[in-house]
Amino acid sequence: MPFPKSEGSNSVFQPQADEAEILFAEEFTKLSGKFAFCVNEKDAVNQLNQLIAQRKWQHIYCVENKLKNFLSAGLSTELNNSSLSGCDAAITSCHYLVARTGAIVMSSAQQSGRTVSAYAPVHICIAYIDQLVYDTRDALKGMKAKYGSNLPSFITFSAGPSRTADIEKTLVIGVHGPKEVYLFLIDKPLQ
């Protein structure tokens, strides 16, 4: 490098000032995501039931056993794991939540695979407070620590509903992915 001191190792972003969950909620909702804080898993199921009843959803897709175990006991509708097409909403977990950008970090290594969060008309992500990290760098370090040299073939940073302004510079929501994204953040982790 011709100017070795011009590239600093310090971040160009401000250090974290607020609690990570507050910062994430602010950034996620700025991107049209819908955020719900849940005290515990029972609270998450109750809030999810309210959402399902309000929206009159009948077909909820979920293939992740960890989620199905605690959701199916109290959920008002049966979870479907046979057909993603035609579902009203899909539920997934995630690896991390990036507070600074409001992004959800998912990968092909998850039981739900590559397609669920992108093809469902509504994506619902269930996450825990211990999955919050401040910056993208922290999420990538966590993925590297977890998977080493066997990183998943697909890692995505999803930040709210899909949007594009390709057509006459007019913002269109939900063209290349879900029209709505919900994030249920649970304070207490799985037992």
Characterise this structure:
The chain is α/β, with parallel strands linked by helices and 191 residues long. 26% of the residues lie in helices and 24% in strands. It has 5 helices and 12 strands. A hairpin with a 7-residue loop joins strand 10 and strand 11 (172-173).
What layout of secondary structure does this protein have?
Elements: H1 20-30, E1 34-38, H2 41-55, E2 60-61, H3 65-71, E3 79-80, E4 89-92, E5 96-98, E6 103-107, H4 116-119, E7 122-128, E8 132-133, H5 136-147, E9 155-158, E10 163-164, E11 172-173, E12 180-186
Parallel strand pairs: 1-12, 2-3, 2-4, 4-7, 5-8, 7-12
Antiparallel strand pairs: 5-6, 6-9, 10-11
The biggest sheet, with number of strands, parallel, antiparallel or mixed sense and barrel status, is: 6 strands, parallel
Gap from first CA to last CA: 50 Å
| Relative helix content | 25-40%
Average pLDDT figure: 85
**Element order: H for helix, E for strand:** HEHEHEEEEHEEHEEEE
Radius of gyration: 18 Å
Structural class: alpha/beta
The multimeric state of the shown protein is: single chain
Low-confidence stretches: none
Let me know the number of strands.
Answer: 12
The shape, in one word, is globular
Number of helices: 5
What is the beta-strand fraction? Answer: 15-25%
Order of strands in the sheet with the most strands?
1-12-7-4-2-3
